[in-house]
């Protein structure tokens, strides 16, 4: 992996690490579907402004339909699932479950896209998940139906990410501008979420639309954690492939710890060092070039 790709990987992890905190602030106040819809909509508008300012050529190379559908799989449905989970799960738990994305990518690649499941990748996924568990020791929780439903929603989202990475590589090859890909994907996500948003307002409108904190969090969620992040993500997909790009999820919890320590004065412990070391080993195992073709399928 080139240094530039590694830098993008770290930057994307830092940005997405903050997204769970923003969702945890917004979703309990205005609801899950409004949070998901405004996140995608604000992200799409932000990218539209960037495209117009930079005078990007609007050439989708005949792949606009694929981009819109990919947006549903990679942004719309996962955003709805994580917003639902944010109603009942602490941000740390969503980050832990989000870290199953590489595992989903490896399994989906092996089952549906003829990707070799090497021993190194399998070991890296296992070690990474263990490291995330050590790192994000958020304490015991009561196992009830709400927690199980929240966890299930997160796992649906990670499965979507697993499929989307491979579908993006299959559908969007051929030099399509990453900014156009990100914009059209967020348009697809917004169109998918619009009826869910309207339906949620009809069934149970928010009692409170929040204040400055909630809307600033939504702006950060839409512009930073979605618009800018998706440009980085699609660039990574084209440069390093879906499985390596999905290792961002191993790095999200450490950044969540960092933001908590810097911004919320949350205490640090030695568990963070142990978990971070395990995650670093896992990341190396997954992204290193394969010297052999050992297949464990």
UniProtKB/TrEMBL annotation:
Keywords: Membrane, Transmembrane, Transmembrane helix. It is found in: Membrane. SUPFAM superfamilies: Multidrug resistance efflux transporter EmrE (SSF103481). Residues 9-136, 149-287 form the EamA domain. It comes from the Bacteria. It is a multi-pass membrane protein. Its main location: membrane. InterPro entries: AA-Vitamin_Transporters, EamA_dom, EmrE-like. The chain crosses the membrane at residues 7-30, 36-56, 68-89, 95-114, 119-135, 147-168, 180-203, 215-233, 245-264, 270-287. This is EamA family transporter.
